[in-house]
Amino acid sequence: MFLRIFILFFFILPFQKTLGQDVLWASEVLSYSSEKSDLYNSPKFRSVQILGTPSIYPQMTETPCAWEPNGSQYGEDYVKVGFINAIYIRQIAIIENLNPGAISRIFGYDEEGTEYLLYQNTGQKTTVKSRFWRVFFEPMKKPLNAVKIVVNHRIAKGRKQYDAIAISDSQDFIEFNINVAKDIPQDLQKENLGPTVNSPYGEVAPIITPDGNTLYFTRLNHPDNIRDEDDKDAEIKQDIWFSKRNIAGVWMPPENLGPPVNDANLNAAATASASGSGLFVLNLYKPGGKQEIGLSRTSFSNGKWSYPEEVKITDFQAKKTEKDKAANTEYAISHDENILVMALNRLPSFGNNDLYVSFKESDGSYSRPKNMGSILNTADNEGSPFLSADNKTLYFNSKGHPGYGDSDIFMTKRLDETWTNWSEPVNLGPKINSERWDAFFTIPASGEFAYLSSDNNSLGGEDIFRINLFESIKPDAVAILDGKIMEKDVNTVLDIPLGIKSNSDSLNEKGFNIEINPDTKEYKLILPVGFKYYFDIDATGYLSLEDSLDLTREGDYREITKNFYLSPIREGSKMVLENLIFAQGKYEIEASSHDELEKLIKILKEYPKMRILLEGHTDNQGDFTLNVKLAKNRVDEVKTYLIKKGKISSSRIETKSWGPIKPISSNSTPETRKKNRRVEFTILKM
């Protein structure tokens, strides 16, 4: 063995960044003497926790995200770790986050396995409760790729934890920084929603609807919460409340959601549907007012909320952690309700509460929860998930990632369709996260603001705060599309399904979730921008309707109202053959138009006495006479198709060419001129 000169730093020192410094964090556990374990044999406190970058630094406290030796309090323990490369070590850093000072020796190993004594404790003592400890020495003659630390329990009594080990080829301090969000505005502040919404009793778990106009939350121990009528001395528990934002953008006084959703139990909202008329709530509602762990859904219709019905999740489990009296579960739902993200404690697990994902099955149930992986989950708690409207950006809080307080809020982006491959979680920074508990981040589809719970600078318990979202933590832009399907001319609202597809095979494969308000029959859905969408409405007694919405050039959030007007099948009804396509200046029908004409053939066959008029129109570009002739050739071509392909009698089809005479839009731009180039048909006789 070879003893090297060393210098000890017993306290956390200022960080100094040095360009070119080669810092390696331990990547492999080669051997160990002992490790603490729990009943479920989870990774908590195990030797693997010493791998990688620090888990919770700069927080230096007891954590399951660190190696905790479980040997005799009077003997020795050790852990030997490897690094991805061999380097000429000049510095070792060890994060001792509980009861430091017990390391008696440090050994290094070269690629041949030769052992070198790098450090030996000669009686040094420390009085700090934790430390980022750096050991310096002269350069080694050989590069090393493994290190072993030996813990002597006689030096420092009690439990000990070690979060991370790093080596460097430089004497510039090894440092570690939180992966914090970029470009945080200097003037960013959390805005307390004030006494109109918040109370001295505690408001947690805010849920903002995608349109940003309704805020659901859980209110703790409030005197207006529903209580047990049979036990006047019973503790007032928690209820779901909501606040509406008025036309001036001001939040109105909250209202209790009331029964049957709220009762004398622990009531809490979990997540909301895209329209806000569907609410997912914690627990299963059982006869006699009892509740069991799980998830339920309630809907608002005819001025009241329905009795919550169970959301079935295959092989649902939720264990309580060692520190909890009961199992704790939290949920997020995608806007199309096809993806359910949940925070709970079940097997397999990385430790305490982990994030899991379930997928909606054909029968409406959700698949067996799948752990979302080690990029997100740690040996400590992950919770309060929120999946943004883009179905890619996930916000959650964690005690097991480096942060500023007891529990911080993080953001990550989904990288593929496995739902286990995510970008490295980004801490939202000290303007949002405090030294205390922060959680429940929720964002409307606009991505303009975020709402969250915090007990920092609150009116009493936890309060609801709002912040302006800055660019680096915003989700991808989407559009909210709403409207009604109505009968043309009379504007009667129709209860008819809306068909939708896009120019993206991936989006079509996933499908589109269209929510219908049961009272107004208004539809609402969320669409990613950057794509084109095609609508198809086919209903008995009405002429089928096709339309489109082009969002390919959109990059920002949009709110779009689009009503569809159906023409009843009766004399005088008129419609445009929207998907009848001709090449520029040509009259030959393109193959992509055949589906549109087949629908017209179907109507003519369903009504054998029907006679129609086909009218051709053009824009005002070019020679007037040529445009009239072009329009005539096009309607004649349509008539020929109906006769030959559909076997429709020519006596049932009249034609008329108007050329540019009857525009329905301005001819000032290419887009508006496109609307004028059309073929219409009118029912002349039934």
TrEMBL record:
A GO term from the CC aspect: cell outer membrane
PROSITE patterns named among the record's database cross-references: OMPA_2
Membrane is among the record's keywords: yes
SUPFAM superfamilies given in the database record: DPP6 N-terminal domain-like (SSF82171), OmpA-like (SSF103088)
Keyword Hydrolase: no
CDD domains xref list: OmpA_C-like (cd07185)
Keywords of this entry: Cell outer membrane, Cell projection, Cilium, Flagellum, Membrane
InterPro entries in alphabetical order: Bact_OuterMem_StrucFunc, OMP_bac, OmpA-like, OmpA-like_sf, WD40
Domain OmpA-like: 569-686
Domain of life: Bacteria
Compartments it resides in: Cell outer membrane
Protein name: Flagellar motor protein MotB
Species per Swiss-Prot/TrEMBL record: Arcticibacterium luteifluviistationis
